[in-house]
Write a structure and sequence with these properties.
- The protein contains 16 helices and 19 strands.
- The strands form three sheets. Strands 1, 2, 3, 5, 6, 7, 8 and 9 form an eight-stranded antiparallel sheet that branches. Strands 4, 10, 14, 15, 16, 17, 18 and 19 form an eight-stranded mixed sheet that branches.
- The protein is globular.
Length: 689
């Protein structure tokens, strides 16, 4: 998982729709730093990630039910809806995802009623369009970074030591096994055992369903699908209308002499981008066609080589000989006369000689078949290099097109930014209108996807009801099939148990070795991290020659926890690349840390600031001004790809204002609110210096 951006709307301290926070994710500048004072919203921002992906919060996140911004509530009329949402964009395995969790609130005369949250997800296709994922959003997220593991990648640094407390050992053990793929085997064995028990039970006939109720439920769902379909038609019409307005606004911008050159360049880039997307789709289709029509040839060289060896061996033994045909010899025996004129009377030596040739002549057909097979094998072998040449060519095209699309998108971003900052107010207004239209189109597209997702869910329920209506009693054939499945299940359990035993031993030793390496680089103590056979993480000392547990301090537990997370990322990345773990593609993990340096001394702060950006594929650090001091800034500055400041507007009269200097520019951390509300703004740090 590679996080690319986050955006908020009326979430906690963040009033209205915030600018999009782009997150650094490319080596070596893989770190995003977000500065903010206590109370400015750093913890809220950390929990915005976990709320979207898992609907979970960290221990330091107070008042979990009060998510909606107070100013938004105050400014809303009674019985009107208030939108509160967070949207996270991310990439995984060459796919782009956009995920939004939303909760609507309704203001009453005395309170604010918050409805149940809703989660929406879209996946970008190579054609630039957004589609619904093939699975429910929760399942997609769970396969990439399961909810039970999120606290090891999105965490409060000041409380991170809690993951190695005694009452957390079982939890960290389960997390370790899951990350290493051992838990996959455990679950497989468990599920196979449950399946075996189910199969061993006597198969009973399925009772007839309550047909009347099923038909009633089916009719109700079909009405819901009709309502969603009508709304989809309205959205399509609205999207078409918005596209027309967008085109007219773009043309108006092009008519302005000051913006004409930029606008023409933007249209050229958009045309190039669309053409590249079409070519990208063609290349991917070509790869599919090649695999479908020629891919089988890759698996045949071993077979054709064996065929040639078999034919050559038969020839060397004289078992394949070309000669006269079998029918010709049979005619001689029928006529009882040889070519030389001699009579072929039964039981004579001449008759026996010709009879022997009849048996030899039968081999001719075999040799002819062998010759044809060898010729066909030669043609098949020729397919292999041409197949790989075609695949390599198209894959190179795909890679090149993706790179060019990315470059075009960067150029478009720069053009839009120039138009937003143009001295001409008319140009700025037109660009703002284009931005608003893009946002409206985006919102409609997201709603379209959500409605389609709901419709697909209802259709699936309708299909399930139809299946229930069609169910019949189980028969003897199914019982016999269950017996065969029982045998296969028992064999699979035995094999998986052996694989698990070997994998646990190997992975546990290698993981322990890496944790010790990282811990020793950070800590100056002689303590040694150990992983027990139950995957419990402990700290021991060996000064007396006998290992004994250590009563570690809070700082040492923080270092141990960070060493554990860093080693997990490092080892799983290595094992994933070597295809050693039984997990989906898992070589990239983000790490989002709130205040990771607060309670550590200078030496530990420096060592952690140095090593964490090297271990993590992507790092997001939320820090106060005091935490971002000398040694931390010195070690991490070269790794920064994106940087932001959270400016807190205090409603307190005569509040003490505060600033932070970054790159020679001072940015406000605390300012006086222009109204009676407190809120936080997100400001991007200028990286042009």
């Amino acid at each position: 998982m590679k996080l690319t951006a986050i955006r908020l709307c009326n979430f906690r301290q963040f009033y209205g729709k915030t600018p999009e926070i782009e997150l650094a994710c490319h080596h070596p500048e893989n770190t995003t730093i977000i500065h903010g004072n206590n109370g400015a919203g750093k913890t809220s921002l950390l929990n915005a990630f976990t709320w979207v992906l898992y609907e979970k919060f960290s221990a330091a996140f107070a008042s979990e039910t009060q998510l909606v911004n107070k100013r938004a509530i105050a400014e809303t009329k009674p019985n009107e809806a208030i939108e509160c949402w967070v949207e996270v964009s991310w990439e995984h395995d060459r796919n782009r995802y956009r995920t939004r969790r939303m909760c609507r609130a309704y203001k009453t005369e005395t309170d604010c009623e918050v409805l149940k949250t809703e989660l929406y997800m879209q996946v970008a296709g190579d054609d630039g369009k957004w589609y619904l994922p093939p699975q429910p959003p929760e399942e997609v997220i769970g396969e990439i970074l399961p909810a039970s593991l999120h606290q090891y990648f999105f965490f409060d640094g000041e409380r991170i030591e809690q993951i190695v407390r005694s009452d957390k050992k079982a939890e960290i053990a389960e997390a370790t096994k899951m990350l290493l793929g051992v838990e996959v085997l455990n679950r497989s064995i468990k599920h196979l055992g449950e399946a075996k028990k189910s199969l061993e039970a006597e198969l009973k006939a399925i009772g007839d369903p309550q047909t009347k109720q099923l038909l009633k439920d089916q009719e109700k769902l079909e009405k819901q699908v009709k309502i969603l379909s009508d709304r989809q038609t309205e959205i399509i019409q609205e999207l078409a209308h918005q596209q027309i307005i967008k085109k007219e606004t773009s043309n108006r911008l092009r008519e302005l002499s000051a913006a004409k050159e930029l606008q023409e360049r933007r249209q050229q880039l958009e045309s190039q981008k669309e053409l590249h997307r079409q070519n990208l789709k063609k290349s991917k289709d070509a790869v599919k066609r090649a695999i479908s029509s020629k891919g089988y040839a890759v698996f045949l060289p071993t077979i054709t080589a064996q065929l040639r060896l078999l034919v050559n061996e038969k020839r060397s033994r004289g078992e394949l000989k070309s000669g006269i045909s079998r029918q010709f010899i049979q005619d001689l025996l029928t006529q009882k006369r040889c070519l030389c004129g001699a009579e072929l009377t039964a039981e004579t030596a001449a008759h026996q000689n010709v009879q022997d040739w009849l048996e030899k002549a039968g081999i001719v057909a075999i040799e002819e078949a062998a010759i044809r097979a060898i010729a066909q094998s030669d043609e098949l072998d020729k397919l292999v290099p041409t197949f790989w040449e075609e695949i390599d060519r198209e894959q190179e095209n795909i890679s090149q097109l993706r790179q060019e699309i990315n470059q075009i998108e960067q150029q478009l971003d720069r053009i839009e930014e120039k138009l937003r900052k143009d001295p001409s107010e008319e140009i700025r207004n037109l660009q703002k209108r284009l931005d608003d239209l893009e946002e409206k189109i985006r919102e409609l597209t997201l709603e379209q996807g959500a409605k389609q997702q709901q419709a697909e869910s209802f259709k699936a329920q309708i299909e399930d009801l139809a299946k229930q209506l069609a169910k019949q009693k189980l028969n003897e054939e199914k019982q016999a099939l269950a017996q065969r499945r029982i045998t296969a299940t028992a064999d699979a359990i035995d094999r998986l148990t052996e694989v698990r035993s070997r994998q646990e031993l190997q992975f546990r030793w290698q993981l322990e070795e890496r944790i010790q390496e990282i811990f020793s680089k950070i800590s100056f103590t002689p303590y040694i991290p150990k992983i027990s056979d139950k995957y419990e993480l402990v700290l021991v000392e060996n000064t007396s020659g006998i290992e004994s547990p250590v009563a570690a301090s809070t700082g040492e537990n923080q270092i141990l926890s960070l060493s554990f997370i860093g080693s997990i990322i490092d080892r799983v990345r290595e094992w994933s690349q070597k295809k050693m773990v039984m997990l989906p593609e898992s070589s990239t993990f983000p790490m989002v840390m709130d205040s990771p340096f607060g309670s550590l001394d200078e030496i530990y702060r420096r060592q952690i600031a140095k090593i964490i950006p090297q271990l993590a594929n992507q790092l997001v650090v939320l820090v106060t001004k005091t935490q971002w001091r000398g040694e931390v800034a010195a070690e991490m500055s070269a790794k920064i790809g994106k940087e932001y400041v959270l400016t807190y507007y205090s409603s307190k009269q005569d509040c003490e204002q505060d600033t932070i200097e970054l790159g020679g520019i001072r940015y406000p951390l605390v300012k006086q609110s222009p109204n009676e509300f407190e809120y936080t703004e997100i400001v991007a740090v200028d990286d042009s210096f």
